[in-house]
Amino acid sequence: MIYLDYQATTPLAPEAREAMLRWLGGPDGDGYGNPHSAHRLGRQAAGAVEVARDQLAALFPPGGRVVFTSGATEALNTALRSAVGNVLAFASEHAAVLDCAAPLREQGLPFEALPVLSDGRADVNALEAAISPGTGLVAAMLVNNEIGTTNPLGEIAAIAHRHGALVLCDAVQGYGRVAIPTGADFIAISAHKIHGPKGIGALWVRDGVELAPLIHGGGQEQGLRSGTLSPALCAGFGAAAALAAQRMGDDAEHVEALGNRARELFGNWALNGSAEYRWRGNLNIRREGLDVGRLMSEVRTVMFSAGSACASGSGRPSHVLRAIGLSDGEAKSSIRLGFGRYTTMQEIERAAELLNAGAAEQGL
Question: Is the pTM higher than 0.90?
Fold first, then answer.
């Protein structure tokens, strides 16, 4: 099996798995304490949580706090539901942002999706035209999960702050891979996209920014997210973040080499998204007339995506590919290859051989 779906999830790092084991607990161990309990086992578990929080914080800009969540979707929803004023987002944002439009409008908050350029980057001129003193929040991705395009977050933040609006950054695909730019007021991340466990994410909140709780109950997690934290998930997330910080340069160099080789091997496929402003571990490409379903069925040893994992099986063309101007046919003839730390050059080359042969079988 060749795994090329890193945007959907990443393999669990051995270091993250090891960090989790003690805190999974058991009748003969001491790692099963509730981190919100005052006794010794509880304090030990709470200590593991705070170590993990510090490990995550090391990859964020200074001047903020880390709030653990169940994942980036909850983190994004929490920030959006805390908006005071109109919300602007770009049409290429994740569904976890765009699907908040209806509940926000029910709250009386207008929600507008702004266009992106043909290369997938946020249209800052459209933002300038749409923003007003009534805008409360601007949402913009750091790295797009479907096409890998990067946004000019610094420029977006400057425009938003000039008009008194806060900035929400979906950094799920960028955290631990690239430096997080300053300027955002909320930053959402997910553990399983950086070789950590599934079921946990975090929201970074700039100091002084108000946040309303999405989940009510016992007042845990700084009064913002009631419910018992999992020390095991926190520890795995923290270990994955610490490893990412340690390996960021090496990982980026490795991915750059893989990405350059992949572009050579798929040279007769069209690239979706910017060739210059992108994370090289995401290659979204298309061949006119390609039957992606047939290709997936015939090349079963290569794990790749027909668009974002969140939309798989819906039958609908990717909203991101449509946002950059592709026709339904072009969008449906696109595939996404995602690779990273544990991908080898031999795997990239073998996958290209199989996928190109599969396309050739279709007369392409």
Answer: yes
